Amino acid sequence: MTSRWTRWFSMASLLLAILWLAPAGTGQETPLDGYSVADSKTQREWETKFQALPDTKILRSSMERLSARPHNVGTPYDKDNAEWILAKFKEWGWDAHIETFDVLYPTPKRRVVELTAPYRFTAKLEEPDVAVDPTSSQKSEQLPTYHIYSIDGDVTAPLVYVNYGVPEDYDQLERMGVSVKGAIVIARYGHSWRGIKPKVAAEHGAVGCLIYSDPRDDGYYEDNVFPKGPMRPPDGVQRGSVEDFPSSFPGDPLWFDRGDPSAPHYTAANAPGITKIPVLPLSYGDAQPLLSALAGQMAPDGWRGALPISYHVGPGPASVHLVVQSDWGLKTVYDVIARIPGASEPDEWVVRGNHQDAWVNGADDPLSGQVAMLEEARAMGELLRQGWRPKRTIIYCAWDGEEPGLLGSTTWGEVHGKELREHAVAYINSDSNARGFLFFSGSHVLEHFLNGVARDVEDPETQMSVQERRRLLAIGNARTPAERAELRGRSDVRLQALGSGSDYTVFIDRLGVASLNLGFGGETRSGIYHSIYDDFYWYTHFGDTNFVYGRALAQTAGTAVMRLADADLLPFDFTALADAVRTYTKECEDQLRKEQDEARERNLELKEGVYRAMNDPEHPLLPPKGAAPVPYLNFAPLDNAVDALTHSAEHYRRAVARSNGNLLGSPEALRPINAALIQSEQHLLDAAGLPHRPWYRNMLYAPGLYTGYGVKTLPGVREGIEQRQWQEAESEIARLGRLLNADAAFIDSTAREIEQAATEH
Ligand SMILES: [Zn+2]
Fold first, then answer.
1. Whether 682 contacts 512, CB under 8 Å
2. Residue 219 to residue 370: CA distance in whole angstroms
3. In which band, very low, low, confident or very high, does the pLDDT at 500 lie, cut at 50, 70 and 90?
4. Which of 100, 316, 431, 751 has its CA 20 to 30 A from that of 733?
């Protein structure tokens, strides 16, 4: 390269950096990423009109309508809501229909939890109605408290308290000399997705599992309880799914992949997602007599909750009789699918979704997000009347069956998998919404794009942009000066990676559609999750009571949809992706070093007699087992691939910056490039899937095997290290390296296509 070119490049990249980092406020003159100057101006005008439309009064009345009766899968009101939503979409000018699927949906026939020793107590398993809350008394339509996809069972056994019931808790019990073999465990909610608790309990030989809500976590310790305050009352129960989707697959437990006729099909008797032991949820009102009947050693400090008792771990003398029997029938889910056909690029789809089914009345979960999505759809209908014609096709989905296991979205995604892989530009999800800060997570190619959208939406409490408020929160919450410096040097807020827990899962983990999950929160306290008290009364007293954050969610998600649907060049950016993969790689390397240090330290302390010296014979604690040495792993294939990815991402950014003026407004030149970009997230997939769980094809993000909703990034490598499967970890490093090198080559070739097309125009 000649020095003249070098100078040109460094000036160009400086200019680029300035443009890229341009703060909010000066942005009005800068065209939107992927838009020509003229198109950007028109787009901003439409977005301004759009953002004025979402109406807090309509958000409120829609929520009141949709939450008026219980509407879990299989109820008349679930179907009624779907039909009401369908009619609304049609009224607003959308082309809409309902797609139905029959799914396994067990409902409880018999539930018993009783203490048989040292005294008798029978758990109520019942949430009482509250006089001031009108829908809490709709007893005949409320789904009883239970965990869907628990196996049937009838067991009597000694009780053991296992804290949160995550693997480390069992390590601690082992040191205390307590086994759960043949026992029923009682775990508290929190620190992992609920389905992990019966899974880990069964792996340790337990025969039953109870999960209760401790007031320390979402009850009186936090604030007043409902109806005086927002927190969980003594008899409030968290229902929920315990389908073991992280180690098998989400969606209907009977179908591995409904879009693939050759994929395995199961019965309720052999479906891998059904728990191995029976499990039921409890209120703290029901849990307290069980816990206070436990003797044995005191629970360790960090295990104690806020009940007015001494927390012992047992086993015994408490003995519990647990019965779970369900009706294992099929029920129908109703997905409402609505579309605005694209004017010039109908084969490129922007997909948006939020579920509509609830455990009971579900004002917060999911209707606070659903009504925002509906306001977007109403506003877009209004824009259509005013002459707006999106370039691309927009598809809005009101999912059914999210609560039991993402049934509606997963099945729809699988059945339409081929089309989605070809046509879907992105999937934008939301779920519950509350007051506070914008939280966003998802595919890193959309990080810069979404920050741009969030800079153009005003926060209702502070009147700063929702992006700025979120950025400042990150600085305020940073723990180290280095973290703060890093955040201040970066204009974009980092996108968190997606695990699972809502309807984006099939899109990102199986289909490779770039996905986002959006929602506001952080200021609303809530202890009504998945109970009969999650209703209109609660939401309008303790949630986003004036619906201004519902409006902000509609403004944010709707603007994102419109901006993606109308862009000339899809505003994907790979530098945040490369940056994220670099960060995750470093985390895995640090994790390995930590494992090595801990193994060395533990073995040294065993040798020195530290554990023996510290042991109190009256409260004995066994020494841990000696640790097997942790080998060094060769991260070079991954480190090299991260460098390649970084270079190609920079190449792409340069190519876009230098050719924008020439390319934009030339649909023929852009069409093949956009088509390539639509496939870009699929370069992160490997058809063979993750080790031991082939449904999950994304090699960058997956729900954790032992966290559930919580994400594991670079899951093959990271979980290989965590599970001490060294050979597997090393081969996953190599596989990921190959995958990322191929992705880098794809990004380079797309950048070259842009350069090529730009010189031709
Ligand atoms: Zn939800």
1. yes
2. 27
3. confident
4. 751
Task: For residue 553, report the distance from its CA to the centre of ligand 1, in Å.
Answer: 15
* Residue-wise pLDDT tens digits, 28-56: 578 999 999 999 999 999 999 999 999 99
What is the distance in A from the centroid of ligand 1 to the CA of 155? 32
Please tell me the distance between residue 113's alpha carbon and the centre of ligand 1 in angstroms.
Answer: 28
Residue pair 147/308 in contact (Cβ under 8 Å)? The answer is no
Give the DSSP H/E element, type plus range, for residue 711: strand 711-713
Confidence of residue 552 (pLDDT cuts 50, 70, 90): very high
Angle, alpha carbons 419-404-545 (nearest 5°): 95
Beta strands (DSSP E) in 189-329 are 208-212, 240-241, 279-282, 319-327
Question: In this predicted structure, what is the pLDDT of residue 200?
Answer: 98
Burial class (CB in 10 A: 0-12, 13-18, 19+), 631: middle
Residue 364: per-residue pLDDT: 98
Residue 381's identity, in one-letter code, is: G
Which of the four pLDDT bands, split at 50, 70 and 90, describes residue 660? Answer: low
Would you mind telling me the total number of residues written for the chain in this entry?
A: 761
Residues 416, 408 contacting (CB under 8 angstroms): no
- Ligand 1 center to 354 CA (angstroms): 8
- Do residues 195 and 312 touch, judged by C-beta distance below 8 A? no
Cα of 239 from ligand 1 centre, angstroms: 12
Per DSSP, what are the bridge partners of residue 429? 353, 517
State the average pLDDT over residues 276-284: 98
CA atoms of 211 and 239, how far apart (whole Å): 10
CA–CA gap between residue 421 and residue 423 (Å, rounded): 6
Q: Is the confidence at residue 673, as pLDDT, over 80?
A: yes
User: What would the two tokens of residue 160 be?
Assistant: 């053991």
236 Cβ neighbours under 8 A, 6+ residues apart: 127, 213, 219, 225, 226, 283, 527, 528, 531, 533
DSSP, res 510 = I
Query: Which backbone phi and psi does 243 adopt, to 5 degrees?
Result: -55, 130
Find the 365 Cα to ligand 1 centroid distance in Å: 5
Strand order in the sheet with 515-522: 95-104, 330-340, 392-399, 345-355, 424-430, 515-522, 436-442
d(CA 584, CA 524): 31
Collapsing DSSP to helix, strand or coil, 378 comes out as: helix
| pLDDT, tens digit (0-9, with 9 covering 90-100), for 418-471 | 999 999 999 999 999 999 999 999 999 999 999 999 999 999 999 999 999 999
Tell me the C-alpha distance between 222 and 527, whole Å: 9
Burial class (CB in 10 A: 0-12, 13-18, 19+), 110: exposed
Q: What angle do CA 367, 235, 67 make, to 5 degrees?
A: 20
Cα 709 to averaged position of ligand 1 atoms, centre (Å): 12
Rounded Cα distance between 486 and 484, Å, is 5
Is the pTM above the cut of 0.85? yes
Ligand 1 centroid – CA 534 distance (Å): 11
Give residue 756 CA to ligand 1 midpoint distance, Å: 46
Determine the pLDDT at residue 663: 82
CA 490 / ligand 1 centre spacing (Å) = 32
Quickly list DSSP for 219-253. STTTSPBTTTSSBPPTT----EE---TTTS-SS-T
End-to-end CA distance of the chain: 25
Give 316 Cα–ligand 1 centroid separation in angstroms.
Answer: 37
* Cα 672 → chain centroid: 32
The rounded mean pLDDT for the chain is: 94
> At CA 499, angle to CA 498 and CA 501, rounded to 5?
110
Q: Which of 575, 572, 583 is nearest to 714 (CA)?
A: 583
